[in-house]
């Protein structure tokens, strides 16, 4: 009874109070939460966020922007881009951004998401010189500090032994970047993770990670020129895709991978990028891209190769941590040489591309001993080639890619997005990934982190009943032909369903209710069999969320989420309720915000997920289980137009526990808190 009253109180508070809509676009938190829930891994890449933030200061002119510029926002489907360009060509220049509501496929919610990044006017097509590239952009210097206040087990001395972690719990990020969106970017990123040393020991050079890039776009026949660190994104992700990409998410139509092949890299993640040189040349409808990279990767050393008499690499370690002696020993264990290219024809309506990439390693990769690792990559090299296509005919956009690896194993994905009525869109996708298909940095649509060992059919629909009311849903049927992690039986099947009803009565208010159901097969728990029998496992979740701004200084976001988990005789239930409130003090250039979260779950199977984002370019997805409270307080102070300061304090407190976490990250007690400080100077 008490629990019901408190949950009800949170919802009443949600209806009466008020969040910041400009810190992070709404579609990114939803996509990040879905990614972590599906794969339990998250790519540390804030490049998309950096690009969007740059567009708030260098807005895209709607009356002169081409398809590539509009697609670079990542907010529009290919059909929406096509409809916008057709509308502009037939009816002339836009006189107001709200005129976008007359474009087929656009609604007030979408126009609201676009508003911070686009502008209208009588702008002429820009023609910039190389000198303009160096003067019309903006310089930004960002410094971030963070620290967990409670000492984890790895930082405490062990009898007569020193602590397991050699460094302090302090986290540091220093980034300088010059950014002229769509034309030029260069900068340097430096990062020290918690537990790593600083100017001593294994990190005598100071920061543990350094990254630098120089990137030029759209200069004469040079579509893109990359020096230093960059990402490569080809086709639909079957051969290589290192940037942020949507999977299955509430944005049911965002199923196509799209964007330039080469992109600058300025994030702090230490794995998903290349280091070298790349160039894209364009001549009318033809584009030719080539790139070469050489970099070091962290890895665990396995058995010794009997023929080569050298240590093989049993696994790659993408985390980038070098806190202990063991982690420091993994650093640079493998040298990777990569070369590849792309040849594409794109006339605006139709696209076809040929993609090739090859990796060579300084030591052979070694398969794991687990049965599901039988078809994992092995040896000194990986090769992939693919053919991708995309085309638009009337109100139908189709796309796809077919790929092959060096051993002849196939992977393919084909899809279409169609506008079947002025207020109805559908999306269909089929994928088939061989159980033995091997790739390095692939990221295609599906349930797995890589496109391997999966076949499936996905269907989605979006209906706009009124300009304020929208219903979206998808269904996905999939099968895994071979064994996989936590599933020792081949040909296991699963299905997933999502339905969402969104109500947007005005620009400052949005409410939705969402239901999600997923079922599959997993190993039976507690069995002694070498090959465990599989049993059905299912998870259901319901989410209600309200975002509103009842006044110019107030913003609010409230969420209630319920989960239900079944596996054999195990039945877990969980719930989360949070209230987020923001208040602005314009006279003092201050923004204060905070979130109070109450959660309770029956175990890890019924975990709940929520994304936090209250400092520029800093975000995290919380996985909460057990019972307790999580709360944070945030402050942003715009000291002047070009200097801003952020501060953040957060804490999670659990009930009936004596420690939090495990291994060297274990914290004694029932509470864990952290502090973050950040300053950014624009010049």
UniProtKB/TrEMBL annotation:
UniProt key word Signal: yes
Organism superkingdom: Bacteria
Matching InterPro entries: RuvA_2-like
Signal peptide range in chain numbering: 1-21
Keywords: Signal
Record's protein name: Helix-hairpin-helix protein
Organism of this sequence: Chitinophaga japonensis
